[in-house]
Amino acid sequence: MTGSLQIKNDKYYAVINTYDKNGKRVPRWISTSLTVKGNKKRAEQFLREKLNEAEEQKYLVRTDILFSDAIRQWLKDIAG
Question: Which of 47, 61, 63, 67 could be stapled to 14 by a disulfide with Cβ–Cβ 3.0 to 4.6 Å?
Fold first, then answer.
């Protein structure tokens, strides 16, 4: 998963690139509530934390699919 910091209205935003089931990129904008002046390191730390959270959520088991489909998807994920 990738992400970047963007500036909008003099505030930092973390933009996390997620993907839907068709492989299309879906950017997720998250406000850091940090002003641009003097907060770049804090905003970068915020982005790293949000990327880690997104990676962890990627491996959570979904309950809206069959177990056999989840296993097939897991096998595809670890294969490459």
Answer: 47
